[in-house]
Amino acid sequence: xxxxxxxxxxxxxxxxxxxxxxxxxxxxxxxxxxxxxxxxxxxxxxxxxxxxxxxxxxxxxxxxxxxxxxxxxxxxxxxxxxxxxxxxxxxxxxxxxxxxxxxxxxxxxxxxxxxxxxxxxxxxxxxxxxxxxxxxxxxxxxxxxxxxxxxxxxxxxxxxxxxxxxxxxxxxxxxxxxxxxxxxxxxxxxxxxxxxxxxxxxxxxxxxxxxxxxxxxxxxxxxxxxxxxxxxxxxxxxxxxxxxxxxxxxxxxxxxxxxxxxxxxxxxxxxxxxxxxxxxxxxxxxxxxxxxxxxxxxxxxxxxxxxxxxxxxxxxxxxxxxxxxxxxxxxxxxxxxxxxxxxxxxxxxxxxxxxxxxxxxxxxxxxxxxxxxxxxxxxxxxxxxxxxxxxxxxxxxxxxxxxxxxxxxxxxxxxxxxxxxxxxxxxxxxxxxxxxxxxxxxxxxxxxxxxxxxxxxxxxxxxxxxxxxxxxxxxxxxxxxxxxxxxxxxxxxxxxxxxxxxxxxxxxxxxxx
Length: 513
Known about the structure:
By secondary structure, the protein is mainly beta. β16 (211-215) and β17 form a beta hairpin. The longest helix is centred in the C-terminal third of the chain and has 13 residues, at 472-484. The two termini are 49 Å apart. Mean pLDDT is 85; it is low at 1-25 and 278-282.
């Protein structure tokens, strides 16, 4: 599946190219962050990044009502996504797969969502509401982007499996997939150079095929593969740099020794970097997921080497596969994704002490801002509060800025008071017109910095009587001050009461603020 992380991330150094590569004071060791609190309950089967958040699909939520099987991690906490304001229940049974598409997160579900008039096994979340995407059948095991901009889905509602295509209006049958699927959690789908491809893993002791291509509406085995273990096959696919990359648990694809990951350019199979080995080179890791994070391939995997746990994530350095170390609690990873400067992974809930089904890794140790400040409009004398909270688990220092100038706590020259200039929450007490401007926060540690979005503060100075309305009462009050040349009529704060003050007030009054 093709995935990507997105978030607001503006660094204060031009050396940083993207949110996944924050500007850093120094390159630090990989930091595995503490488990999320509370921990995510249930089996995590897939992850998807969207608008800076990570969505998790799986089997959680059965102890809540309404139940749900999609949760969202925003860097600070988990949120269950059962029902939107439109009243349509989201996925309430197992959810096998996720995909970002046209500004929405799509979920492939065991059961349909919606009503009998319009129900679908593919649910779409737009950030506020759930809705059925067309009328897809239930039991959707895999989703993938189609080359024409649509969506592909594999349904196991009937035998054999069936592949459908969504064109933005309706679902149509593409063809019959494999006759059977051995493991519903380990199925993948892709389209490459006009061919729809299905992969899965299962009991391959007899060398059964696990990679199929649809030809004339019928799936046929594509390429002969050899496997290391009984439960093997192709578990994940991605289109990367013009090639199809397949990953799973195999040691040969065609005539090529590939060691769990290989690429196809339309003519030739090649091992991807020699495959993935553990340190002792005595065992090949089973790959459960492959994705591109900031253009760099990462894999979710698991394995032991002489009783040594090797960790759940590896990335491609350009010359070799590099393991990112071990999380603070054991994770049997089924999926990997990117979230700003972090790599997150999740998988099977082992229900064992010291084990987690969701873990987070900061490859450079750099922090990022999970809670961004919002634009605000206040009336004179009111308070304004901005939030710029670093993602959970990062120990950081905070510094707030206004229009490029660092803030410090205490009274300002024009009468307002700054509180929390070195905290996650900045408060301005008794706002004045001079407080209008752009505010942002920089979070930093010894490994890097992250600058929040720039939030605007508008002080509605035309409301001179501070009653929450801009009307004739304000105009009459200001006119009286102006006639008497009192200090309150110095609207532009230049120390004089003259026509400039009257003109600026009139302009702000006409503008409604």
